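agent> fetching stored inputs for the cobalamin docking request
agent> found them:
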Amino acid sequence: MNNNMTEDIKNLAKESLIDEIRFIDANEYEPKEIFRGRQPKDIMPEAKSIIVTLIYIGGVDMMDFDDKRHGRISKLALSGFYANMVKPTESIVDYLKSNGYKAIVADEELEDETISLKSVAVRAGLGFIGKHTLMINKKYGSFIALGGIITDADLSQVYEMQPVGCPEGCDLCQKACPTRANNKDLNLNRSLCIADYLESQVIPVKEEVDISNYFYECDICQMVCPYNKNHAKEPLDTPYTRFFKSLALSAEKFSFENLMKMSEEEYMEEVVPLYYGFELPYDIFRRNVSLAYESMKHRKK
Ligand code: B12
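agent> prediction call returned; pasting tokens
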């Protein structure tokens, strides 16, 4: 382990508003079968360490929105980390490369060829996998974005792993999921998850399913999680929370009335930049807005 490099990297992380950073070894992680071809050394044979980063996104929201009147986008999508934590880790990658090391960022665009960030974050002692299948950290809850850099620099340290901490008998997240995507033990049924579902041309369950007011991705299972309860009401004051507040998203732009009459040009200009890189086609956006509008119209409370 190189102490000077570790300190330099921690400082760069702070400048990029990263809340937590850890350094673990690049050995294989479990379950080996599921991650065959996606182990750190499959991606970089000389890999020695993985740098794991965490940014709290509990303060990323459309706070003053009224769910009956406004459409929503998930916190992860709005945070800009849909494609994983690529931007905030750039300076660390440049630093490693300028010191003669290799460095590869875990990027969602390489989904089948990149490491599982939940697995490495669990091994870095940053949290445990909750019943919604997401990683929960006791301080930040599950509204977090994870990032990872695979490198041949030897930086690894050993951390204590966190015990599983879902309250006994709690299944609020599983019950809340409108499509029952997370009912199997810690395994997400991808085609049913609203994050995937709202991107699909063909919806895998009946259109009457109440998808709440989300037209892109979804936070339903996380909103009911006891670990996120306080964050939903009063997010932690972090640099990123402050940064997001300064963007002040206009509620009116997201009223169903406005979303439903948005032309393709307006959609491309006003909404697509909020997905940060991903482009939900206009026809699917329109379908999702009308599904969300119908869901909210038929809700009793
Ligand atoms: C592909 C992908 C998806 C796919 C799902 C594919 C799938 N079946 O997992 C879709 C598009 C549906 C999706 C949805 C969402 N995603 Co996503 N996704 C990814 C991505 C790019 C790869 C995940 C992957 O490889 N999946 C394949 C499966 C086999 O691996 P896995 O999910 O990593 O791990 C599973 C098992 O191995 C096991 N596991 C892993 N580690 C450990 C450790 C222990 C001890 C145990 C017991 C089990 C265990 O649990 C997991 C669940 O089955 C990651 C980023 C990354 N590079 O990791 C983000 C990522 C997992 N997604 C993330 C998020 C936030 C979401 C959404 C909430 C977005 C949204 N708001 O709608 C939803 C999730 C809803 C939910 N209930 O889980 C975050 C998770 C943060 C967190 N707190 O854990 C990540 C890490 C992205 C990021 N930048 O932070 N996602």
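agent> quick read of the result: The chain has two domains: 3-151, 172-236+248-297.
agent> awaiting further instructions
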